[in-house]
């Protein structure tokens, strides 16, 4: 009597164990195993060499689209306005230079081996498209530390302006709120809201959650740290006095800084490529040898009867024209809005309507890692109630001597205030403000470099800021091609500002073009 495949597999698992079952299922093709250096291609492998695609912009979206289409056999050409690929995924090292609009050229003079991720600096574990490229290209990753409870929070309204550790802010808040809630429950003040919940069990939960003591009071605890650390023999240690609830409420900590790392895409585990974020775009570019033209600044592009035509200026300011069957435009919309096109009025209006986030990052080389040596801070982010907003600590090469400290990462009006200063004045301003968190910074930091992304000529902003009403109208317009012109980039995703959004939009457009070619056959 025959045995079904399903019954056979069930019996095999019972007799031989899950290991044997897994091996047999692999052999039967029921389980696909991805090995390092392999990934599922976005498009099937077909010979489409008779179809040409010109891609505007050599950032991660443009490079991803070119890579996937060329892998499938399309003839792709990437036009990149600057002298480097990567777009906003830019890592600055010794010898690199940048020039904001209207500002002098800044040169990076960091020591060899040190670097600054001026754009994207972290990869959430949920961003599998980007991580797929890291796996396929054998790029080494290390953990990016987003949340460090030893990092510092500073607000002039708390602790006489002296910084407090992140653990104090988080655990004191949890303890003080738990105390209020537990006492209210104990006094039957919330009976209507609690209904048939087990009140004693809820109070027990709050005691554990908030580290409450007898009498349901919060008096601090080990979670929020020590004034004197426990040690040998009779050194029991001394707990910190808890912050007062009124101080926490008066501060700005709770508005977003406290729960920043709780946002889905900010949660551990996060990654960074070893040696700099540009490892990803560099790996893509290496696989597109001969397909990328740098210093090719697009001035106009148009739909034609049988495809597209793009005009661009070379580094020598010579005007050139290229024709193709399709165009994928990955330029930031602020840049695109200034070009000559024959796009539909709906597309043109949509492009002009989108605002971009002003952002500024400032980085310093430190002569020693004083944040590690003096404050035991290893990676993570400190926050300050000041236009510089954040300080980022390096997440690798611990105890290695020198390091690069991001002394400011600002958005909105704070970024505009920083960007209005000339680079040298900007760096002095940030250094002075950072001293509220690290007084050593003036004597311990030297070389510096900064980027105001909204002043970079081929970026014009950190990322797109879609309003909800725009998602219903303008976003839907740009999600569809204008005849032979398609749009991709972080702005064409629900992940603005993330490399994942740029990559996924590129994959979607590549698939759309391929489906169109197949349907036309």
Describe the structure.
The protein is of the alpha/beta class and 521 residues long. It folds into three domains: 52-85 and 292-354 and 466-520, FAD/NAD(P)-binding domain (3-Layer(bba) Sandwich); 91-150 and 268-278 and 358-455, Polyamine Oxidase, Chain A, domain 2, CATH 3.90.660; 166-251, de novo design (two linked rop proteins), CATH 1.20.1440.240. The protein is built from 18 helices and 27 strands. The strands form nine sheets. The protein has a five-stranded parallel beta sheet with strand order 14-2-1-18-27, with helices on one face. Residues 31-36 have low confidence and may be disordered.
Helix-strand blueprint:
Elements: H1 5-16, H2 18-27, E1 52-56, H3 60-71, E2 75-79, E3 91-92, E4 97-98, E5 106-107, E6 116-117, E7 123-124, H4 128-136, E8 141-144, E9 152-154, E10 164-165, H5 166-186, H6 191-194, H7 199-210, E11 226-228, E12 238-239, H8 245-250, E13 270-273, H9 278-286, E14 292-293, E15 297-304, E16 307-313, E17 319-324, E18 326-329, H10 333-336, E19 340-341, H11 345-353, E20 355-356, E21 359-366, H12 370-373, E22 380-384, E23 390-393, E24 403-411, H13 412-419, H14 423-434, H15 441-444, E25 445-452, E26 464-465, H16 468-472, H17 474-478, E27 485-487, H18 499-520
Parallel strand pairs: 1-2, 1-18, 2-14, 9-22, 15-19, 18-27
Antiparallel strand pairs: 3-6, 4-5, 7-13, 8-13, 9-10, 11-12, 15-16, 16-17, 20-26, 21-24, 21-25, 22-23
Helix pairs in contact: 1-2, 3-9, 3-18, 5-7
């Amino acid at each position: 009597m025959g045995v079904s495949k399903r019954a056979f597999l069930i019996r095999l698992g019972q007799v031989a164990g899950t290991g044997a079952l897994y091996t047999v299922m692999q052999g039967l093709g029921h389980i696909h195993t991805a090995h390092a250096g392999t990934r599922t291609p976005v498009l099937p492998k077909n010979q489409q060499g008779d179809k040409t695609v010109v891609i505007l912009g050599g950032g991660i979206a443009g490079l991803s689209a070119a890579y996937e289409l060329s892998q499938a056999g399309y003839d792709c050409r990437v036009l990149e306005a600057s002298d480097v690929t990567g777009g906003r995924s830019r890592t600055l090292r010794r010898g690199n230079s940048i020039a904001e609009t209207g500002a002098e050229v800044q040169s990076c003079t960091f020591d060899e081996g040190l670097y600054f991720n001026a754009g994207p600096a972290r990869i959430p574990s949920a961003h599998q498209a980007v991580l797929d490229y890291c796996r396929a290209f054998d790029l080494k990753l290390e953990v990016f530390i987003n949340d460090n409870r030893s990092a510092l929070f500073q607000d002039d309204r708390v602790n006489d302006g002296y910084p407090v550790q992140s653990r104090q802010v988080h655990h004191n808040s949890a303890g003080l709120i738990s105390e209020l809630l537990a006492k209210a429950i104990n006094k039957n003040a919330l009976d209507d809201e609690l209904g048939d919940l087990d009140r004693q069990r809820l109070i027990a939960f709050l005691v554990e959650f908030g580290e409450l003591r007898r009498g349901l009071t919060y008096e601090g605890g080990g979670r929020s740290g020590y004034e004197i650390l426990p040690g040998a023999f009779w050194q029991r240690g001394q707990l910190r006095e808890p912050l007062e609830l009124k101080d926490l409420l008066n501060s700005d900590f709770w508005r977003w800084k406290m729960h920043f790392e709780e946002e889905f895409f900010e949660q551990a585990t996060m990654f960074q490529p070893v040696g700099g974020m540009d490892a990803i775009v560099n790996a893509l570019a290496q696989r597109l040898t001969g397909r990328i033209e740098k210093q090719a600044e697009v001035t106009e592009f148009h739909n034609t009867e049988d495809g597209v035509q793009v005009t661009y200026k070379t580094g020598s300011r010579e005007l050139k024209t290229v024709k193709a069957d399709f165009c994928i435009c990955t330029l930031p919309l602020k840049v695109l809005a200034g070009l000559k096109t024959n796009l539909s009025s709906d597309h043109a209006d949509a492009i002009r309507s989108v605002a971009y986030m002003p952002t500024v990052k400032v980085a310093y080389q430190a002569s020693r890692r004083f944040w590690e040596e003096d404050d035991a801070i290893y990676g993570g982010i400190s926050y300050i109630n000041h236009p510089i907003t954040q300080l980022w600590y390096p997440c690798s090469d611990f105890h290695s001597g020198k390091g690069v400290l991001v002394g400011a990462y600002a958005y909105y009006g704070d970024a505009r205030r920083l960007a209005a200063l000339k680079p040298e004045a900007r760096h002095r301003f940030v250094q002075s403000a950072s001293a509220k968190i690290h007084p050593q910074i003036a004597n311990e930091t030297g070389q510096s470099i900064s980027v105001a992304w909204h002043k970079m000529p081929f970026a014009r902003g950190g990322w797109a800021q879609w309003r909800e009403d725009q998602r219903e109208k303008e976003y839907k317009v740009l999600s569809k091609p204008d005849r032979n012109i398609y749009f991709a980039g972080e702005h064409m995703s629900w992940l603005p500002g993330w490399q994942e959004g740029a990559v996924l939009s590129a994959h979607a457009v590549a698939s759309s073009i391929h489906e169109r070619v197949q349907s036309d056959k």
